[in-house]
Amino acid sequence: MFDLLGVSDRIFYGTMEELCEKRINSKGDIRKAVASTIATGYTERTSSGESDRPAVLFIDEVDVFFEKQFFGAIY
Known about the structure:
Oligomer: single chain
Radius of gyration: 16 Å
Largest sheet: none
Distance between the termini: 32 Å
Number of domains: 1
Structural class: mainly alpha
């Protein structure tokens, strides 16, 4: 189905932690940016080529998403 829609290269499978990490670092490595800001007082984030196009999230095993230790927890 993804091939027919032409979006196969935009599909990402992973855990919620991996998804959060990928999203946080979508415009550059946040850890390096923070270290640079602390060292120099100047923040420079580079773009990794991620576009600002709308995203869709499909969740498999939604029961895991709503478990007490995940839903409402801070990443």
